[in-house]
Amino acid sequence: MTRVVTLAFCGLWALPAWGATPDPKDLIVPQQEISKARELIRRLGSEVYREREEAQADLAKMGRMARPALLEAAASDPDPEVRFRCSRLLPKAGAEDLKARVETFLADSESKFEHDLPGLKQFRKIAGTDKDARDLFVEIVKSPYNLEMLQMLEKGTIEAGRAIADRRMAMWNIAQPRNFGRVQPAQPLPLADIACLLVAETAVPYKDIPRSNMWSHISGIMFINQKASTDAIGDSGKPHAEAYKRIISRWLDSREDAMELSNITYYLGQHLRGFKETLPLLRRIVTTDGVAGYARAQAMTQLIQQKGKEEIGLVKSFLANDSVATTVWFGNVPGQNPMQMQCLLRDVSLAILIVQSKQQMTDYGFKFANGAIQNLNADVPNFGFYAFPNDEARHAAMMKFAFWRMKQADKDPLAASTTPSDMTSNEKK
């Protein structure tokens, strides 16, 4: 049924506007039209086939004017054929009604009236009600695919979640180059399409959006690096930039699912550092159970890059966490088998604390992969390029740093309450 509505609306959208006024009251269906539609609906139950067909054709010609009566009959008429025929007529009548409401909204350029449009209330809660937000919504509703997703928001989170999943995949296919028999280059996505998806994802819980194993990583974050998006984030003078940034702020604030948090960290450091919601989101990534170790390590690193010693307490809380952050490969030498070493979250925590205290990681037994070295001027170590060669080296490093902190307790804020036994515990926090 959703597909039928979309096709009907796409066809209607190509028609010229019918001189809409800005006042939604002008869309009210006159009583005489409702009476006319009810009489035609009564004939849908005629024993004469031709009368039924003629009545259905006449109702189709009435379009949106027949919609109130069609809704009523489709829900409650005792004749099953009447209900069936009305349900077949409703998609086109509904598409015409939606088109008329959109045109009325577009005609109300001064925002003098309240409008009943799909998703408008949710959009305003997220993006605001100023002119910039209205102008962005205008661009959004010009796309029948955006309107379809906004319509599903009105039907509940389950149907809205399915619509979001479908829209994500459609946008992903547009944004990716393809070579199936013939080369099809990637197409840039409009800001309005990205904004609409983020609004929908903000309004619908992540758990209600279907995910396949192959495409589980795809979410709104994958489209924030589109040019239209990065331009709006980086230049407040771009059209709709302020409203779009408000949408991103609310979207960032609503991210809680462990799987999505695992995929979001990289983009937070790339494009979204300027949003105040980024820092609490990074902390959420670090502390949420189920988030992948590499994401927690990257988020921890980004927190220190942005806030320095303010985040040391959170970093120290991972000194006993044995979750794997990443695997580091050593010995990329021809003719020799490379070795892989696991870097744990406790290793990342220790490495950050060593660098923040202006010490050298090699003094603590850290090994660097394939010629990488510690940048002594950096605030954080380069995650993914260091690890301990074995558990004995890790244990020795933890003990050494614990004793260093005890010696520094009176003069260095890094030397807090952690004891050697705390740091060498196998307890996972």
Shape: elongated
Helix content: 55-70%
The arrangement of helices and strands along the chain is HHHHHHHHHEEHHHHHHHEEHEEHH
Based on DSSP secondary structure assignment, what is the total number of beta strands?
A: 6
Strand content: under 5%
Largest sheet: 2 strands, antiparallel
What Rg, in angstroms, do the CA atoms define?
Answer: 30 Å
Helix count equals: 19
Distance between the termini: 49 Å
The overall pLDDT average reads 86
Q: Spatial order of the strands in the main sheet?
A: 1-2
List low-pLDDT spans.
Answer: 1-9, 11-18, 415-422, 424-429
Structural class of the helix and strand makeup?
A: mainly alpha
Report what the structure shows:
It is elongated and about 95 Å long. It has 429 residues and is mostly helical. Helix content is 55%, strand content 5%. Strand 3 and strand 4 form a beta hairpin. The strands form three sheets. The protein has a two-stranded antiparallel sheet. Strands 3-4 form a two-stranded antiparallel ribbon. A two-stranded antiparallel sheet has the order 5-6. The chain has 19 helices and six strands. Among the domains are: 1-105, no CATH class; 307-424, no CATH class.
